[in-house]
Amino acid sequence: MRALFIVNPQATTTTPRSRDVIVGAIARDVDLRVAQTEYRDHARELARGAAAEGYELVISLGGDGTVNEVVNGLLATPEGLSRPSYAALPGGSANVFIRALGLPADPIEATGAMLESLRSGYGREVGLGRIVSDVDDRYFTFCAGFGWDAEVVHEVERQRRRGRRASPALYVGIAFQKFLKGDIRLPSLRIDAPGHDSVHDLHFAIVTNTTPWTYAGSVPVQPTPRSRFDLGLDVFAMTQLNAVNTSRLLRQMLSHKGVPPYGRGYVGWHDQSSLTIESRRPRAFQIDGEYLGHRKRVNFQSVPKALRIIG
What we know:
- The protein has 311 residues and is α+β, with helices and mostly antiparallel strands.
- The chain has 8 helices and 16 strands.
- The chain has helices spanning 16-27, 42-48, 64-75, 96-100, 107-120, 148-161, 168-181, 243-253; strands at residues 2-7, 31-36, 57-62, 85-90, 124-132, 137-140, 143-146, 189-192, 199-202, 204-208, 214-216, 219-221, 233-238, 266-272, 274-287, 290-309.
- Strands 5, 6, 7, 8, 9, 10, 13, 14, 15 and 16 form a 10-stranded antiparallel β-sheet that branches. The chain has a 4-stranded parallel β-sheet with strand order 2-1-3-4, with helices on both faces. It has a two-stranded antiparallel sheet with strand order 11-12.
- Helix 1 (16-27) packs parallel to helix 5 and helix 2 runs parallel beside helix 3 (64-75).
- The protein starts with a strand and ends with a strand.
């Protein structure tokens, strides 16, 4: 088997030595080519060309941003070519998609699990989410967000460009700052989905393809605990944004059960094939922890069995 190994050299939880160990282990089982990313969306370009170059498997080492780029590249495989399978190894600070798949958070252990699956022929198909707007046509693996969480992602990206290291503490600190000083308290969002009445005046909304939405260190944060890769999309949106209500919901999200199916201060929809979120004014928007800019309207679609995963 020929495999393309896409490595983000800026991955925060690996070292050159550990990457060499991983490459050596994989190369014993497959005909491996290693390519390091050099700029934003480079992983997407490499993955898109993998099928034409005869690769049957694409492996990545990086965070959720690298995963998102590779997935979008694979989903853009030219018609008539066989799309390679995908194996993702953790190299970022959160690795939400990889951990949601049930894979180890340690890159060496994840490599071992991936190789065991490869030798046994085990693979699985997972569904993805797709966003379409005036400027977007992209897939996401685990979540998309309008408002508060996207503003946090945007600020974290700015801090990282200044040399700060992404960490749970940084995310939590910025989220608290935005809650106190940001414009997230202004309700501007509306959600429409088939079979549901429109919901207006929402403060922020997230759309998930699996659970958890994110992690607070090792603790999963679950606003949509019934969300699964083999189902449609789930939605969580807040109708109230105050200290008491937000604290109560956060405590529930951090419990092993997540938030209940319904409750005061929020709405939640399960297993949706499509939906639309609109805002009266442009709001920050993110997918898979990557800030895409400000948007006023985004259409969401569930794409079942979109990708074959090894591991």
